[in-house]
Amino acid sequence: MNSSWFLARRLLLWRHEGRKLNWSALLSVTGIAVGSAVLILSLSILNGFETQVLDSIRRFENERVLLPKTSQADATATAASLAAIGIQSQPYAERKLVIQAAGGYRLVTARIVPDLAAQMERFEDVIRGTLSYPPYGPGVALGSLLADHLALLPGDEVHLMSPLDISLANPRPPQLSATVRTIYDFGVLDFDEAYIFIDFQTGEQLIPNLSAISGLSLTGPGEGWPGDAVSPEEWDLRTWEMEHTDLLTAMKMEKLGSAVVLFLIVLVASFNATSTMVMSVMEKYREIGILRSMGANRRFLKRIFLNQGLLIGLAGVGLGVGLGAMVSGAQMIYGFIPGPDGLTMESSLPMQLRVLDMVMVTVGAVAMSLAAAWYPARYAASIEPGQAVNYQK
Known about the structure:
By secondary structure, the protein is of the alpha+beta class. The protein has 2 domains: 3-57 and 247-389, no CATH class; 63-238, no CATH class. It contains 13 helices and 12 strands. Strands 4-5-10-7-9-8 form a 6-stranded mixed beta barrel, surrounded by 4 helices. Helix 2 crosses helix 11 (298-334) and helix 9 runs parallel beside helix 12 (355-381). The longest helix has 39 residues, at 245-283.
């Protein structure tokens, strides 16, 4: 074993009186371990919620959508051009509507799709209620929160109104009665309270000139602009990331802010390690002087106490990250920690352990421990042999 590591371990763990354990050092290790474990668990929880929300957005939203910029944009011709290069497209539209029922009314965004039943098949595992035999005539699918606010169940009748289509010639908004066919529950407030789904056949009965406001949802190879088949002067490409930029930014900032705040626990434990090593230098003042008189240079002494900081950091972060990873992994497999009611689709608390987070916590905690050891190491290296040997405690 390297002599600097041997002396670092011996000076850190044991007091010279009867080889008593240095409890201050063990408390420093415990503090770093607790801070690291809490940080790993917190980041795992944030990762779990983030993954659930992003998965819901990806399923609810279309990956890429072409929206017309001008009235000259021809959806049929553009769809044919896209099909020629292997990109499938479907008509797509959104419109603000008012939905009214016995429980009141709400302003919602209507997502208008070619086939309501096919759309609901994509949401199969989040369907809370549906009609076994959908009736003929207009139908609507809506979120669980909206259904609760309006006291609706599958089979109930609602009235849809299009307030944007009021004109001088027709001052009354177009209205249409529809049957609630499906109620879905994504566990995301924006989707479950603010959106409804209807098909194009229903939309055309309610909204004049629906084809003029329709876009195209794209499925197929590629992620960016779909090549020369689409004119950028006539169409605008939107992705789900662009539609939810604020939400994605907020989740990243929340994770960053939580990591910075929780790193303060590790920082406080590192300050405790600094005081522990300063006390160790003062207790071993004469021994350090003897080492200096035997030929140990300042660099060697500094390395001893830097190694002490590294030992504290490695021991603490090893215990903390190991404990945090063990609890997170067990939760991912067994789900023994219940989640908050009504906040997520799952009954257990969502967690997702990421290797990058473990590396970040490990590097950060060890770096703080080394920084905490810098002052004691410098103090020990400045001790003069003659003064230290004659030092009286």
